[in-house]
Design goal:
The protein has 816 residues and is of the alpha/beta class. It has 8 helices and 53 strands.
Length: 816
């Protein structure tokens, strides 16, 4: 018995030694002894887990160019390109470029149609592919298919050259397939610097699962996807960056530590995204990634969409430290969610610090389905959603449009500075349930739409409570006998654009209320977070099913007409929400006459006598104390800009946006020349809004004393690269601005100091093409900011009048 046991132990020991064979590639030939093809065949034939090493004579990159597809890998093996003398793995951690040296390249240019670089197939689970450059295979670089799984793909350059900086491509980068035979727990990348893959420059997707299925439990961590080995330059894949689809489940993309972070950027083809979780993907975590930035998280590189989530109970981010993703600089939405997806703790539209803008062109979060969760009231659950929407007609922070998109809880987030390129001022709101504008409250909340058009609360007061918190009171009128969660938010006291609605910069806290049989509830409480006196406070209501309202807006949304004679008596219609019988209307504190409340959304009145050339706040106060103000909502006509003046509407818009107050004495100075010092103020307020304050002057220009009235503005204009002065170290502050110069100033203010317009084509008869200002002038016309001065001319040498300036500023910055 003892002898038999000893024999078994010896048999196990010796079989283990024999099974772990190593096959060495010693040449770049396509077949025969010492070739990679032969090594794969030998490893497949040998029992157990084997290794393929490289020892090809000579220095530099050794390129293996198969004349046909290499054999499938059907037995566990480690193929290690780093065993080639002169090769070395990456040692740089997160936030640093890949410094690995690759000297084994698989070039599939001659391998034929539908060729795969390396295919880990049935029976080969537990294999590792490491330290290779794999490019130009017509189908895919690496395929893991029905192998049982637990494979590792690490330290490879898939789709690039050996330096990792030029795109050579494969049909797709890495494909994981499971048609039922089993593909579980594959690891792409890893948490050590040496494990980082660069998957870039491929014609299709970078990393993709699918066809029959994608398996489960895969980890994709620590990779550069769509960026080169420096992590700083786009080398996008032609499809999606990471595309999980077709019954993939319980995968992890990224993680909560910097070592697990993927950088996924540069996927700019139409309808492509950095990360896609298809409709059959379930239980996947997407955490800690930089999606749309470089390796530092500070520079935007973009995707078309950041993260697209389907319908599978997946999570983007999380409330734990490090779980949130940075999702920035996409040309479209930051995050798209379908059904039952969770979005927590992410930075959507900012850099990795959470403070600097790297906005997505579309809405921060776009919801096209139901039962999604965006943020939460527990610590770390709220997302920061900011600076998004500038390229989208609807834009905004969180957008869902139309009925059927319901039960979406949007709570505890910081949502601010989101805009849109739409023509309506209410577009670009923090939470947008309908395309047409804010959804007014209605009796018993009977209407329907996105989130069932849930009614929002109305605040009657919000003030510092003197003990480090905020005291709020208000009402909620909605469905009867129902409990609601009320979340409170504050914005800075200054509203950047006078017609902007309050957003949700700071989450202040929450409470619960229950409506009575008439659908009414009140609240009166102290919140733990302080505000500054004058900071606006807003709130949302969320019903038991998770339907969150839009933020409570001011009661007054608009007034028409928005200007009229100073002598009073102009019949106006005020639009808004929750107006009640007995409401009082004032303009600049003066009481309007003939007030009639036509319904909860409309009031008519006549304006009081007002001083000319002033923009007045329009306020409505209900008997129950609910109130709202449209800042600078009505302009009493300037004496020199009557209603029939060609510049009337533009002057009114400019003044109602607090960009100028005229020249005094009730006059605007419509025909006066615009001086270069005035232009500095117009441009910077037009660009940044009325809350902008320029830095203190330092004495940049010899002819602009510091301090002086315009010095701060002039120097800020120069600091932004919009002007370099008029030459000789001077700015020429009191010189009129010529129309040709104005074209340059406007376009640089709009597009940035590095902007260069397209080449001219000869649009205007008096603007030779080419010439110094021709490109700029013609681009101004292309953007419909100007039509010239008439007769097919632009009049480039003419001074720019203040009336013309009003047109230029309003059109350039889309002021309402």
């Amino acid at each position: 018995m003892r002898a038999t046991r000893s024999a078994l132990l010896l048999s196990w020991f010796f079989s283990g030694s024999v099974l772990a064979a190593t096959f060495t590639v010693t040449n770049t030939g396509d077949s025969g002894a010492g070739s990679l093809r032969q090594a794969i065949l030998d490893a497949n034939a040998a029992p157990g887990a084997d290794a393929i090493h490289f020892d090809i004579p000579g220095s530099g990159v050794h390129t293996i160019t198969p004349a046909s597809a290499l054999p499938d890998i059907t037995s566990p093996v480690t193929i290690d390109g780093y065993t080639q003398p002169g090769s070395s793995p990456n040692t740089n951690g997160p936030g640093q470029p890949d410094n690995s040296v690759h000297q084994i390249e698989l070039d599939g240019a001659n391998a034929g149609a539908n060729a795969i670089g390396l295919r880990v197939y049935q029976g080969a689970g537990g294999s590792t592919i490491r330290g290779l450059v794999i490019n130009r295979f017509s189908s895919r670089g690496i395929v893991l298919e029905n192998s049982t799984g637990s494979n590792h793909v690490e330290g490879n350059f898939i789709g690039t050259d050996a330096a990792g900086t030029a795109a050579l491509g494969n049909g797709a980068g890495l494909h994981i397939l499971d048609d039922g035979s089993g593909e579980v727990g594959d690891v792409v990348g890893g948490t050590s610097p040496a494990a980082r893959n660069v998957v870039a420059g491929n014609l299709g997707d970078g990393i993709v699962t699918g066809a029959g299925g994608g398996g489960s439990g895969h980890h994709i961590q620590g990779n550069f996807v769509g960026v080169d080995a420096t992590g700083a330059a786009v080398l996008g894949n032609g499809g999606n960056g990471i595309d999980l689809a077709f019954f993939t489940s319980d995968a992890v993309i990224g993680g909560t530590t910097p070592a697990e972070r993927n950088v996924i950027s540069g996927h700019s083809a139409a309808d492509r995204a950095g990360i896609v979780l298809g409709s059959n993907v379930q239980g996947t975590l997407v955490q800690g990634n930089y999606v749309g930035t470089d390796l530092t998280g500070a520079v935007g590189l973009g995707n078309t969409v950041g993260i697209s989530m389907g319908a599978g109970g997946n999570t983007a981010g999380g409330s734990a430290p490090g779980a949130g993703n940075v999702v920035a600089s996409s040309s479209g939405p930051g995050i798209v969610a379908g059904v039952s997806e969770t979005i927590l703790g992410n930075l959507v539209g900012t850099d990795a610090s959470g403070t600097n803008p790297l906005g997505n062109g579309g809405p921060g979060v776009y919801i096209f389905g139901s039962e999604n969760v965006v943020g939460g009231t527990s610590p770390g659950a709220g997302n920061v959603i900011a600076y998004n929407g500038a390229a989208d007609a609807n834009g905004g922070g969180v957008l869902m449009l139309g009925a059927g998109r319901v039960d979406n809880a949007i709570r505890g987030n910081s949502i601010y500075a989101n805009t849109s390129n739409g023509s309506l001022p209410e577009r670009g709101r923090a939470i947008n349930l309908e395309n047409a504008g804010p959804v007014p409250n209605d009796p018993l909340d009977a209407d329907d739409g996105g989130n069932h058009d849930q009614n929002f609360p109305l605040l009657t007061s919000a003030t510092p409570n003197g003990t480090g918190g905020t005291h709020v009171t208000g009402v909620l009128d909605t469905a009867p006998s129902t409990s609601y969660g009320i979340d409170f938010f504050s914005d800075p006291g200054c509203v950047s654009r006078t017609k902007d609605f309050t957003e949700a910069r700071h989450y202040l806290g929450s409470t619960n209320v229950t409506t009575d049989g008439s659908g009414h509830a009140t609240f009166d409480l102290d919140l733990p977070v302080p505000i500054q006196a004058g900071d606006p406070v807003t709130a949302t209501a969320t019903d038991p099913a998770g339907n969150t309202s839009e933020l409570s807006p001011r009661l007054v949304w608009s007034i028409a007409p928005a200007s009229g004679p100073a002598g009073g008596g102009t019949a106006v219609t005020i639009s808004g929400t929750s107006f009640a019988d007995g409401a009082a209307v004032t303009l600049g504190g003066a009481t309007a006459t003939g007030v009639a409340v036509l319904g909860t959304t409309e009031i008519t009145a006549a304006t009081p006598v007002l001083a000319p050339g002033v923009a007045y706040d329009v306020a409505v106060v209900n008997a129950d104390g609910t109130h709202g103000t449209l800042v600078k909502g009505f302009v009493a006509n300037f004496l020199d800009v009557p209603g029939g003046n060609q510049f009337y509407a533009f002057v009114t818009s400019l003044v109602s946006n607090a960009i100028t107050a005229g020249v005094g004495g009730g006059n605007y100075g419509v025909n006066d020349d615009t001086l270069r010092q005035q232009m500095a103020v117009f441009l910077l307020k037009g660009k940044h809004g009325l809350c902008y304050t320029p830095p203190p002057c330092a004495g940049v220009f010899g002819d602009v004393p510091c301090p002086s009235t315009f010095a701060n503005w002039i120097e800020a204009l120069a600091a932004e690269g919009i002007t370099g002065g008029c030459g000789g170290g001077n700015y020429c502050p009191t010189n009129p601005v010529r129309r040709d110069q104005m074209a340059v100033f406007l376009l640089k203010a709009e597009h940035g100091s590095g902007y260069a317009p397209p080449n001219c084509v000869g649009t205007f008869a008096d603007v030779p093409c080419p010439s110094t200002f021709a490109d700029w002038i013609e681009q101004l016309a292309t953007e419909q900011i100007t039509g010239g001065c008439g007769g097919g001319n632009y009049c480039p040498q003419n001074p720019n009048t203040r009336g013309q300036m009003a047109v230029f500023i309003v059109k350039t910055f889309n002021l309402q």
